[in-house]
Amino acid sequence: MKEYVDIIVPRGGKGLIERVSAESRIPVLKHLDGVCHVYIDRLADLDKAIRIADNAKTQRLATCNTMETLLVHSDIAARVLPALCRIYLDKGVELRGDPHARAIVPEMREASEEDWYTEYLAPILAVRLVDDLDQAIDHIRVYGSQHTDAIVTEDYSAARRFLREVDSSSVMVNASTRLADGYEYGLGAEIGISTDKLHARGPVGLEGLTSQKYIVLGDGHIRE
Question: Tens digit of pLDDT for each residue in 79-89?
């Protein structure tokens, strides 16, 4: 029915969206996964980092903008992970970490390669330590879904580089990934979130779905 329908915005599980995307002859506005990251940088304000990372995971578990992987700079991991992970554990969040993270918080289970790709939509969080901003950006590039990723830092240069190099539809500095929402962005009612690059990207409101029609009124005008 492409003569009647301009675009499809599938809302539902990954299986539904994958099938519509594969089979539809009509353009689809979609995101398949919300593998969102928060990276706590070496120069992060730790109180701010704990508040943001807690909110990004536990404010609501089963949403596409919920953090699924926490990345922490190895220089400050011992100072921030114990307190933050205690909050997670008290709230019933299962932690799955790499060997370096598990050395600091032994209650973590061992993370598998699959964990870095997984959108849990559940009280489960993957945790990885990184040596620098390069490793954090590389991890997001490999495992992320181009939905929403955030950095917590007081380093202006690191923040600017993160914004520039992380190719996601929403990229944040010192803010929870849970803010990636059409209503929160002032777009009115959210129609959907797109991780595509055409034609709308990120949270989409009515304006994002509006196309242009050019009207030209002439009086004998011609092109020379």
Answer: 999 999 999 99
